[in-house]
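@channel anyone free to eyeball this complex?
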Amino acid sequence: MEENAVGVHNVMEDVVRDTLLSYKNNMNLACDCEQCLSDISALALNELPPRYIANSKYSPYVRASHEADHQGITTIIAVIAKSAALVSESPRCETFVNK
Amino acid sequence: MEENAVGVHNVMEDVVRDTLLSYKNNMNLACDCEQCLSDISALALNELPPRYIANSKYSPYVRASHEADHQGITTIIAVIAKSAALVSESPRCETFVNK
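replying in thread with the prediction:
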């Protein structure tokens, strides 16, 4: 997708992506295509607090703070699992829409 | 900055960028370099609700809903103005840090 014109990045995007990829095999996904994973990520990111940074060199520090925060990561997993259940109920990718 | 690996995009990034560029001349910025504008955007985006989409073709619909929402855009301007005041108090760009 497009680059950000103003140089900002939401580190939560990386945290959600990594968490989703780590746990997707335990989430009974109806489909794990790129489109469905994006749908799950977008839903989850709309529920989680954004963590924007203006300089990507600080990204590891913000990510580390999330990895060390066990309660926080549990919340993130729960939000992703809820989003995954929603998307699995009605997947919108080509595989399912054309069925 | 890096592309998003999972194809999601926060439309609020575009709304904040456009609003900031429209109003920056009325915000008494200490500096309007790219770095300071990114700092202001990142601060504002951390306070505003994210509006992630998984398919960029829907971006105009989400943006239109923000443009039609006068109370919403007033809140966005207020958050950006607060962020701009914070960054203007202590700019971190090279122009100021090396002074």
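from a first look: The radius of gyration of chain A is 14 Å.
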